[in-house]
Amino acid sequence: MAVNDETRKFVRVTQRGQATLPKEWREQLGIDAPDEVVMISVDDSIIVKPLRSLEELAGRHGDALEEGEAFAKLREWNTEEEERERADERNHGLDAGDGSDP
Predict the structure, then answer these.
(1) 1-51, what's its fold?
(2) What residues pair up with 48 in beta bridges, in sequence order?
(3) pTM > 0.85
């Protein structure tokens, strides 16, 4: 993807770690407040994608998963991601920030 004035915006990150997505991008991606997004860390970049509802996902993928199965799968992915983050923190000698010893 070519980086230009349309694909690059500068935003401020607050002391609480919050950043505001530019309005035109929120509108373009259909992100309304309050909504949730998925943030993915890739190398030295952060990818922000709209988090679609189960209804939207079901429409896109048919009835591959029942609602209970879909929630279970999301919980599984979240748990795996948390485990990867803890492993990364241990591998890089960082404190997990929860008061526990590494």
Answers:
(1) Pemi-like Protein 1; Chain: D (2.10.260)
(2) 39
(3) no
